[in-house]
Design a protein that fits this description.
Length: 212
């Protein structure tokens, strides 16, 4: 016995409706926890960039580089704690400043080398911060707020020995030909009872460590 086309079509529609109902039931029974787990497994993994660390004697490239210049290589020469720091040059030379009561200077000296095939201008490394122990407090790069007129730091004309020992400027804005190099320093002022742990300086793609 043959079924009529109308009966066959009706049967097909009933079957489709039943399948759709089963699918809706399955979706309704998925728990929120299962949905969250599914979404978590589908989340793209993120790449974590670990910043390198450098200590005294280490060298790193790309200092002050940009889209059309590779920048300079920096070699950390030394660091020291001192009651005085040198800044300049001013119109009449360098000046020596005395840290405020209860404070001390941390002076980091470095060398910038132009290892590229063209001349480059050195960056001005006058921004950054230092972290100290045991407090974990941060302190910004130090600069005398009024230059040679910063009376709270008792400025006086620097001796040649002070400039040679403590460094006078950041070594910035100098045009270096291929193969040339210059030295510079950056200064922080921190409490006397604190110990420097690490520092981050603008244009330097690495964290500076102070391990003794």
């Amino acid at each position: 016995m043959h079924r009529s086309p109308i009966i066959a079509l009706a049967s097909a529609l009933i079957l489709l409706a039943a399948c759709a109902g089963e699918k809706a039931d399955r979706e309704a029974t998925v728990s929120p926890e299962a949905t969250a787990t599914l979404e978590a497994t589908q989340t793209p993994t993120q790449t974590v960039v670990v910043q390198p660390e450098i200590g005294m004697g280490d060298t790193i490239g790309g200092v002050g580089g940009n889209y059309d210049t590779p920048g300079f290589t920096m070699t950390l020469l030394s660091w020291l704690e001192s009651d005085i720091a040198v800044d300049g040059p001013y119109i009449d030379g360098y000046y020596t400043f005395t840290a405020k009561p209860g404070m001390k200077f941390v002076i980091v000296q470095y060398k910038l080398s132009n290892d590229w095939v063209k001349q480059q201008e050195t960056p001005y490394l006058d921004a950054g911060e230092i972290v100290t122990a045991p407090s974990g407090y941060y302190y910004q790069v130090w600069n005398p707020p009024l230059g040679a007129r910063s009376e709270e730091y008792a400025p006086s004309r620097s001796t040649k020995e002070e400039v040679n020992r403590l460094g006078g400027d950041e070594g910035g804005f100098q045009t270096l030909l291929p193969g040339e190099w210059t030295t510079g320093r950056v200064v922080f002022e921190i409490p006397k009872d604190m110990t420097p742990v690490g520092a981050q300086i603008a244009y330097v793609p690495a964290k500076i460590t102070f391990a003794r």
